[in-house]
Amino acid sequence: MGILERKEKQKLEIRKLILDASMKLFVEEGFSNVTIRRIADLIEYSPTTVYLYFKDKDEIFFSLHDIGFQKMEEMNRDLVTIENPLLRLHKMGENYIEFGLQNPEYYNLMFIQEEPMKKLSELGCDWVKGDSAISRLKATVTECMEKGYLKGDPHLVSLSVWSFVHGLVSLAIRERMEKFIPQKEMILPALKQSLNWMISNIEIDNRSK
Amino acid sequence: MGILERKEKQKLEIRKLILDASMKLFVEEGFSNVTIRRIADLIEYSPTTVYLYFKDKDEIFFSLHDIGFQKMEEMNRDLVTIENPLLRLHKMGENYIEFGLQNPEYYNLMFIQEEPMKKLSELGCDWVKGDSAISRLKATVTECMEKGYLKGDPHLVSLSVWSFVHGLVSLAIRERMEKFIPQKEMILPALKQSLNWMISNIEIDNRSK
DNA sequence: TTGGAATATTTACAGTGTTAAGTAAATTTG
DNA sequence: CAAATTTACTTAACACTGTAAATATTCCAA
Asked: What angle do CA B76, B79, B82 make, to 5 degrees?
């Protein structure tokens, strides 16, 4: 069945073509400038051809949202080398902030935009990519507690830490931080400083040892 | 000049009519279902009439964003009666969370959506409503420090506290919290619990007194 | 070579924000 | 009071959007 295989491969190739074009538009011109017709222009097919490979526009965005998580995972690849779980948690936070600021459009799809989640509940499946990222966070927080760097309920602390960094990133990329951080180039350092402050507040003070 | 005055008043009345209609659509059917034509239908004017009172759709959203801040300020009206600044900060946080969960569409315009901020920079003026809310937060945080409830840089701490509650609310209303809080009715208590945890972590321990 | 399946395009629909031109009523002016 | 002008509003239209149905083209096996 070599022929069917090849066809399958071609199908995937065009899917990739569509995703690449969407990504290009999406990253270069932002969410609202990604239209089916412009995607079609880029890949030099007619607009309706796109619908042979994706059910609708939201499915394209959902795929891009997935790719976003892959990019983020890639960024966190060498995180396992950090022995100290609290340091690892800290670095996770820094990576998260950097990823968000450097890829606002991806970040948008992953954590802000409503459409990808709508698509999920439409398909009746759960947020695999998001959930596994959450699990990694939770595992690290739990390890911090086991080794005496943090205390409290790992569930509650993970939720809180994530909310904290998400708050920083999403306020920044949605331009709500200008009063706090007027200079654009100061955003990243300011957010990292805030993260420092947060972690130093929740870590157990070991100076009494 | 009684006649000019009356005309001015009528103009404002229709503006209000448009805003009320937008608000209705907006709250009842969400952001994406607010269209110029549906607004026009509700107020029983032609679509183009809307443009005699608002430059474009974004200007309508900007006005609604303003109204959102008014609603929030109203909610915080009796906050001044709380003597203890840390308790007041806590209550501010709770109000913020409740406001966000109860008015997701307003919250969206105030702190998530890009359009209102674009409109601001287009007009070249600054985020008056947002900035004054930030100032109130900062004042409370500063008072907490003066009275020995908190320590550190008020600027940094305010930014962090705000980011924290914004993170909680925005992840919740954008459906990213299902893994952490599967039951919808548990969202508000869980978010409040997280706020509790946060504040108890940053407050200066006075038990040694 | 022919028939059928797969793939792609054309056409079309119903919607969007927005502008320009036209109309009718209200107001000001001679 | 009548004519001119301003104001308020509507109609028609443009250039888009996502998407469905019908049509055309390409490809491959019999």
From this structure: 165
Nearest to B55 by CA among B145, B122, B139: B122
Report the candidate in B137, B60, B70 with the shortest Cα–Cα distance to residue B103: B70
Chain B contacts of A164, Cβ < 8 Å?
160, 163-164, 167
Write out chain A residues lying below 8 Å of B167, CB-based: 162-168, 170
Which residues of chain A have a pLDDT value below 70? 1-7, 206-209
pLDDT digits (tens, 9 = 90+) for A83-125: 999 999 999 999 999 999 999 999 999 999 999 999 999 999 9
CA A44 to chain centre: 30
B124: region left, alpha or beta (phi > 0 left; psi from -120 to 50 alpha): left
Which residue numbers of A have CB closer than 8 Å to B's CBs? 111-114, 117, 126-127, 130-131, 134, 152, 155-160, 162-168, 170-171, 174-181, 190, 193-194, 197-198, 201-202
Q: Are A104 and A27 in contact (CB under 8 A)?
A: no
Domains of chain B: 1-54 (1.10.10.60), 57-202 (1.10.357.10)
Residue A90 burial by Cβ neighbours in a 10 Å radius (0-12, 13-18, 19+):
buried
Q: What are the backbone dihedrals phi and psi of residue A150, each rounded to the nearest 5 degrees, phi first?
A: -135, 160
Residue A182 near residue A172, CB atoms below 8 Å: no
Q: What is the DSSP string of A81-116?
A: G--SHHHHHHHHHHHHHHHHHH-HHHHIIIII-SHH
Question: At B109, which amino acid appears?
Answer: L
Helices (H) and strands (E) in chain B, counts: 10, 0
Residue B11 has pLDDT above 90, yes or no: no
What dihedral angle (degrees, nearest 10) is formed by the CA atoms of B86, B92, B97, B98?
A: 120
Q: What is the pLDDT of residues B113-134, one digit of tens each?
A: 999 999 999 999 999 999 999 9
d(CA A163, CA A106): 18
pTM above 0.85, yes or no: yes
> In this structure, are residues A17 and A42 in contact, taking their beta carbons and an 8 Å threshold?
no
* DSSP letter, residue A185: G
Task: Kindly state the DSSP code that residue B108 receives in the 8-state scheme.
Answer: I
